[in-house]
Amino acid sequence: MNAIASTLEPIVENSNIYTWENLDPSWQERIKPAIAPDTLPKSIIYPSTPEQLAQVIGLAHSQHYHLLPCGNGSKLGWGGIGKDIDVVVSTKHLNQIIDHAVGDLTVTVEAGVKLADLQAILSKTGQFLALDPANPQEATIGGIIATADSGSLSQRYGGVRDMLLGISFVRSDGQIAKAGGRVVKNVAGYDLMKLFTGSYGTLGIITQATFRLYPIPQAAETIVLTGEMDGIASAVKTVLASALTPTALT
Fold it and tell me: Which of 24, 35, 67, 131 is the most buried (most CB within 10 A)?
């Protein structure tokens, strides 16, 4: 174990911190697109609670470690290239559903919850989170917010910013902060949820998020149009100008 891993190891269990050499090859391949060539990180750490994450970030801040935050790593190649990364911090193990207010159509989850797992649970009550990101089986809630990856459903329901009601996050100095709440009607104030959406982890590491939900439609149909580009574009304009409300146009 290298010096950085030894410094962080007392905060988390030994099984939740790895050196690069001991990291699973699949994780190595996910991380490589996000870092400069020939500058491999020394460790990757998986905090299990927001408090552990805050301690990790606080220690890294005091030691001037360079961090790369991620969830399950499915979108790490989307952002800029990190240089001289010391530690990759993953929220993968922050994967608890905190509260599902069925009557209020809201849900609060930790950042490491996979969207596919959340949708399976919500579907039991006839509800869903109206997001359709890339790699939905692997994408985590924190990663979806960080990349603003709404997908095609934004045509009908709006983007991540429109559904996000509240967040908790760890600042760069290791302090835990909150914004928004758990109800659709919130108090007035600076809307940090919109600021964090699409921030790619540059403003802090999200630990929890609260979303508004929607009922699952009773029926759905998919129509496939083929033909010349101009004809399809004309058909799309016709649909948008009509009384119909399409869920998605792709």
Answer: 131
Q: Which of 58, 53, 97, 11 is nearest to 207 (CA)?
A: 53
User: Torsions phi, psi of 233, nearest 5?
Assistant: -60, -40
Which neighbouring-strand residues pair with 89? 45, 69
pLDDT, tens digit (0-9, with 9 covering 90-100), for 88-121: 999 999 999 999 999 999 999 999 999 999 999 9
Task: Please give the Cα distance from 185 to 215 (Å, whole number).
Answer: 19
Judging by DSSP bridges, how do beta strands 164-170 and 97-101 pair with one another? Answer: unpaired
Tell which residue, 97, 117, 119, has the closest CA to residue 109. 97
Dihedral sign of CA atoms 22, 25, 27, 32 in order: positive
| pTM for the predicted model, two decimal places | 0.88
Q: How far apart are the first and last CA of the chain?
A: 48
- Tell whether the model's pLDDT for residue 185 goes beyond 60: no
